[in-house]
Amino acid sequence: xxxxxxxxxxxxxxxxxxxxxxxxxxxxxxxxxxxxxxxxxxxxxxxxxxxxxxxxxxxxxxxxxxxxxxxxxxxxxxxxxxxxxxxxxxxxxxxxxxxxxxxxxxxxxxxxxxxxxxxxxxxxxxxxxxxxxxxxxxxxxxxxxxxxxxxxxxxxxxxxxxxxxxxxxxxxxxxxxxxxxxxxxxxxxxxxxxxxxxxxxxxxxxxxxxxxxxxxxxxxxxxxxxxxxxxxxxxxxxxxxxxxxxxxxxxxxxxxxxxxxxxxxxxxxxxxxxxxxxxxxxxxxxxxxxxxxxxxxxxxxxxxxxxxxxxxxxxxxxxxxxxxxxxxxxxxxxxxxxxxxxxxxxxxxxxxxxxxxxxxxxxxxxxxxxxxxxxxxxxxx
Amino acid sequence: xxxxxxxxxxxxxxxxxxxxxxxxxxxxxxxxxxxxxxxxxxxxxxxxxxxxxxxxxxxxxxxxxxxxxxxxxxxxxxxxxxxxxxxxxxxxxxxxxxxxxxxxxxxxxxxxxxxxxxxxxxxxxxxxxxxxxxxxxxxxxxxxxxxxxxxxxxxxxxxxxxxxxxxxxxxxxxxxxxxxxxxxxxxxxxxxxxxxxxxxxxxxxxxxxxxxxxxxxxxxxxxxxxxxxxxxxxxxxxxxxxxxxxxxxxxxxxxxxxxxxxxxxxxxxxxxxxxxxxxxxxxxxxxxxxxxxxxxxxxxxxxxxxxxxxxxxxxxxxxxxxxxxxxxxxxxxxxxxxxxxxxxxxxxxxxxxxxxxxxxxxxxxxxxxxxxxxxxxxxxxxxxxxxxxxxxxxxxxxxxxxxxxxxxxxxx
Lengths: 381, 412
Ligand SMILES: Cc1cc2nc3c(=O)[nH]c(=O)nc-3n(C[C@H](O)[C@H](O)[C@H](O)COP(=O)(O)OP(=O)(O)OC[C@H]3O[C@@H](n4cnc5c(N)ncnc54)[C@H](O)[C@@H]3O)c2cc1C
Hints:
The complex is a heterodimer.
Chain A lengths: L15 H17 L2 H10 L5 H10 L18 H13 L6 H13 L6 H11 L5 E3 L15 E3 L4 E10 L6 E8 L2 E8 L5 E6 L8 E10 L1 E5 H40 L1 E2 L2 E2 L4 H30 L4 H27 L10 H13 L4 H11 L6
Parallel strand pairs in A: 1-4
Antiparallel strand pairs in A: 2-3, 3-7, 4-5, 5-8, 6-7, 9-10
Helix pairs in contact in A: 1-3, 1-4, 4-7, 4-8, 5-6, 5-7, 7-8, 7-9, 7-10, 8-9, 9-10, 9-11
Chain B lengths: L3 H14 L25 H10 L21 H10 L11 H14 L2 H13 L4 E4 L15 E4 L5 E11 L6 E7 L10 E7 L5 E6 L8 E11 L4 E2 L5 H14 L12 H11 L6 H29 L6 H23 L25 H8 L9 H12 L20
Parallel strand pairs in B: 1-4
Antiparallel strand pairs in B: 2-3, 3-7, 4-5, 5-8, 6-7
Helix pairs in contact in B: 1-3, 2-5, 4-5, 4-6, 7-9, 8-9, 9-10, 9-11
Bound molecules: flavin-adenine dinucleotide.
């Protein structure tokens, strides 16, 4: 089989269970994360809304979807987590789902889950008792981890700095890739421990806090070493990038729906502005982009769920496609709302900020296209 | 109820009773082209037997090429037959018959019409064309001026000119919309007919297009007599019937499953792999972007197909043609540019009247030129965007000045 041929036909639809999960998450978000609430929350300075997180994790069990049942989770998988992310994207909800329930959980699952120092945090995460961040810069693409910026000594004391870690501020536990005495390793560090400092930065995306993490002889417990550590982080990044496409899809969908609703109601020149062809063509084109993004995002979620050999292609494809669609949808949303779209109280800006920073998160579209070039045998000159 | 297992059994029975002829090998190929390669059922006989077995389009009624089975199960039959090397009915050549005439006849035809037309349409013995567009009526199809007037016998006498008629030079039959009442608003005075292209008064003239060949034609209709028995639907109901035809034009997409790099992007990617000396960074960036879009479009089509087979047709169908047209144009444009000096040449400007469109077999220049038609034929991209905006997104319609005016009073 040529490297460009996927082995099986992906299942691109949603199952009944997935739709039921979506309905539950959507109802919860309608209740607790309507645009006004989200705006108020980001202005409060709290890293995320703990009530919302509790309802999402303890109530719906969403944080444990990727965790096997015997480790305290729901034993579902990436397809289900993708549906949750779609809804969270649609609400630009300030919840550390992508970072904690996807990136950190996947990294932990790549370690030896028989050991209590891995199983313990996994169970706590699955139940939503703690929030955990994988301490890598948010723009890190799969396959793109450079040398670790943190060193560990033989006693497990960690020193170094990791920039722009998403949701580090609200996390209780940090998973830190570091260069140890025997090569690369992944360590667990309590965020409240001595020698751990997080320096919050003002993020472009108000709904996803960023911080630089500074470690100065902080105590770390090794979770995995060498190749296992590298693969665990790589897998987390790939899963994160693949599922981020679903967040982008949900975000784009909100922007389109809201723009259509608004332009049907807003009247100028004696008719609804949505009846002007210059506008309706733009919305129709966006609709096609969103419909296509759905196919790309579902394909990535399905490939990750099946752990197929095509997963790297599916993930790179989804990121290369969905990230620009989300940005375009948010930009069109602002433009077609006119002046009101430019105001602070209209939620459109929250979506634009999330969309634009999502474009950088876990690899830019250009990086993912470059990855594809290698994967599908289209070598650069 | 017909299920997949039942269809597999029926397909096996068909193959057993009518083993298809294998194509003879080309003379220069190795190995003996033994006479056994010629044995078996003749191509047309096989296709006829397949129709009679209800395996032509399984969702059609029994006796009319189908089994009243779910549409999604057609894929089961097609896969089995392809695996057995059975001949197909050359859907590229008879696309208008299959995609547009057949579903319209099925919905609006009398029993007699269905019996007469569907079988030879499906086997390809009779090619169909579509006499809709006119010099003055393209996107605004309902403005058409071709007249049909009833004579004393109840037959219809048709006069007018049609244009851009693909395959008219091959066609035995045409679907035709004509004006039967100029005194009412334009959408209400139309009637739908089946026109015999061999009748006196039908004149087909090749219309050369930008590729050099004449894939489509001008058709002049002068005193053409169409029996009332060849009317589809009620008098004055032609617009309703035409909408069925146009809708089916777009649904047709859902059924086909293509592999990755199966379409035009495959040709471009192969060129990239074969000609390292022509690669530049800029072309590389653009190729990757196009590859991503082509693969996502393929997946979107696949998702639509899966929705159809679950019986939940999504609105994606109306958008697929838009995506296809844009991609075909961008990829073919990239392809000409990539080929450098070769891109400056063209394979053949001879005026020919081809059987169909050859997007893969011919050169980059042909593909580039022919793809320009993808955003015009079967509804322009602008008109399709209107349809998506109004029918899928529910945006308000354009204000109109022509709706309640009698056709004869409209400015022309
Ligand atoms: C290769 C090819 C094969 C064809 N085969 C057939 C065939 O077999 N049978 C047949 O009947 N016809 C056929 N056609 C004709 C085709 O359906 C028409 O060309 C098409 O519907 C457009 O009509 P028109 O050419 O009159 O353009 P016009 O309708 O005059 O359009 C000109 C331009 O104006 C734009 N425009 C028109 N109305 C609007 C609007 N409301 N909003 C925004 N923009 C608008 C169009 O998008 C286009 O860009 C074929 C065409 C091609 C190119």
